[in-house]
Amino acid sequence: MSKMLAELFSMTKHLMVGVFYASQTGTAKSVAEIIKNKMGKYIVDVVYGSLDELKIESLNTFDVIVFCIATTGKGEFPDNSYKFWNKVRKIYVKGGCGSGDVFGGMEICLLGLGSSEYTSFCGAAKALYKRLEKNGIKELVETLYVDEVRGDMEEVIDNWIEHVVKTIKKKQMENQNLFIKMMCD
Ligand SMILES: Cc1cc2nc3c(=O)[nH]c(=O)nc-3n(C[C@H](O)[C@H](O)[C@H](O)COP(=O)(O)O)c2cc1C
Q: Residues 19-43: pLDDT tens digits?
């Protein structure tokens, strides 16, 4: 790559990607960690943590948020996500999300982890999805609810992770191309 092109690339706005988990016994956290590590290889800025570490006020700073959400109790949110859920469940942006509001036009990739042996299968992930959908938030990748009763759970999750990483990488490339085109026009 020429020096000039390299400089152009470094000036490009990096995508701001959040990878957040709601996890009681560590599975969703491990999935989020894998995604965070894979994302790190591309020129995106990654913020990683539990859902309770995600501040409502900072939601609109993200281009994409990847949510890995387990369910505990009887369809409840894990302990490290309850505070966030209690705030976000009350948010309703009239007319759907846009660049100026609390969600700032972000897109989501949402993975629900649960077991169909429980009455409320993936209850927490589904509740979060519903709330975000009501606010007009778009999926970058189709939401997936994984049932641990299925024998192929790991494979299904691995495929979803690959799809998420590829899609975010593609979005970053499109961003760069747009920027370079603007500079060259
Ligand atoms: C005490 C307990 C309660 C659970 N309740 C639910 C539930 O209501 N709905 C569901 O879909 N899965 C439920 N699960 C399954 C978990 O969501 C699933 O095992 C998940 O992979 C755990 O992720 P984590 O290790 O990140 O917490 C429950 C599991 C446990 C141990």
A: 999 999 999 999 999 999 998 777 7
**What is the tally of structural domains in the chain?**
1
What pLDDT is stored for residue 5 in this prediction? 65
User: Any idea what the CATH number is for the domain that residue 118 is in?
Assistant: 3.40.50.360
Q: Which residue segment(s) compose the domain that 72 sits in? A: 16-179
- Does 185 map to a domain? no
For residues 120-144, average pLDDT: 96
150 in ligand 1 pocket by Cβ < 6 Å? no
* Ligand 1 proximity of 121 Cβ (cutoff 6 Å): yes
In this structure, is residue 155 part of a structural domain? Answer: yes
Nearest residue (CA) to ligand 1, atom 22 = 70
pLDDT of residue 174: 84
Q: Is residue 158 in some structural domain?
A: yes
| Residue entry with tokens 């846009």 | 98
DSSP string, 104-147: TT-EEEEEEEE-TTSSSTTHHHHHHHHHHHHTTPEESS--EEEE
Q: What is the pTM of this model?
A: 0.92
Q: Which among 5, 40, 2, 62 is positioned nearest to 179, based on CA atoms?
A: 5
How far is the centre of ligand 1, averaged over its atoms, from the C-alpha of 180 (Å)?
Answer: 46
Query: Does any domain span residue 88?
Result: yes
